[in-house]
Design a protein that fits this description.
Helix content of chain A: 40-55%
Distance between the termini of chain A: 29 Å
Strand content of chain A: under 5%
Oligomer: homodimer
Shape of chain A: elongated
Strand order of the largest sheet of chain A: 1-2
Order of helices and strands of chain A: HHHHHHEEH
Structural class of chain A: mainly alpha
């Protein structure tokens, strides 16, 4: 199945507004509690999304276009966001994510990628050869993996409060594949 | 831990806008594809949320207040939404969900529930005795279970497109506990 870049951009465009509508000014019970030691809370997840906008998706896309397979991407630092967010509020992070995403999608659109561009290959430091198409599809799916995680981390805070309904709520059975 | 009704209402208030921001006018690749036979697509999930607003949460809360443990709730029909949505667009469903949720939260606030009300008990047809507190907490967690499901169903559509990144995306490892 051919990757439809329009579909990818449609989703990437909506994620910041969706997270904003869900999270802004929500009580901290929901946004500053995690699932236990060494797990992320919602604040951490938004921060990680920001870090991806800065260091992962568009920088790697440009590397594919400029350098192809010759040089591997910089490894993505999954804890790299921790240094950046100190002293910020969740509202500030949501603003920052929306702004960076908008800039990045502006750059992506300006590239006017054609199908043959999407087939170009780069080198992932662990996965080996990947296409630009796969990279951009992953950008969108990565938004969804973290929306999935946020809903799970938030639901975890009500694990006791729901009483006997816990067995009916699928999200409470999720073991947490997306840290 | 005491159930904080304000926290529950805060989340319940935000879900319709979050789903609207995520889903409205999104290409049908994302919203009208499911995970395989007898699974729901995103349209079905929003429809199910509407059905819950009509027949589950507030009707049951009123039953607890009016009838207590004397009479079991009507069983919730998990496929009851199918009859209601025919011929509607996803945009119409999102509007309907937002409107019903707003009305229901208005009714909930008007009840001015105190802690002793939250401790009142009703009878679930399968789970037995449940408290009003547990019912209202479940309403919020149920939003999250379906946000979790929507993100998983949508990500499934990009399972092939992400290529070798699929192993890194937690949402693609989720077996789907929340149908």
């Amino acid at each position: 199945m051919e990757h439809n870049l329009h579909h990818t951009i449609s989703l990437l465009t909506r994620t910041p507004a969706a997270l904003d509508a869900l999270l802004r000014d929500l009580p901290e019970t929901w946004t500053f509690r995690n699932e236990g030691e060494n797990t992320w809370n919602t604040f951490d997840v938004v921060d990680h999304l920001i870090h991806g906008e800065r260091t992962d998706w568009m920088p790697r896309a440009k590397m594919v276009l400029q350098l192809g397979e010759t040089q591997p991407f910089e490894p993505f630092d999954r804890w790299g966001h921790v240094r950046e967010s100190q002293g910020k509020s969740l509202g500030q992070l949501l603003d920052e994510f929306a702004s960076l995403r908008s800039t990045n999608l502006g750059e992506l659109r300006a590239l006017n990628l054609r199908q043959q561009d999407l087939d170009l290959r780069g080198r992932h430091p662990a996965l080996g050869l990947v296409t630009l198409s796969e990279l951009l599809a992953t950008w969108a799916a990565h938004d969804l993996t973290h929306l999935h995680q946020i809903s799970r981390v938030m639901a975890h805070q009500y694990r006791e409060a729901v009483g006997p309904w816990s067995g009916y709520l699928g999200v409470l059975q999720c073991a947490g594949h997306s840290s």
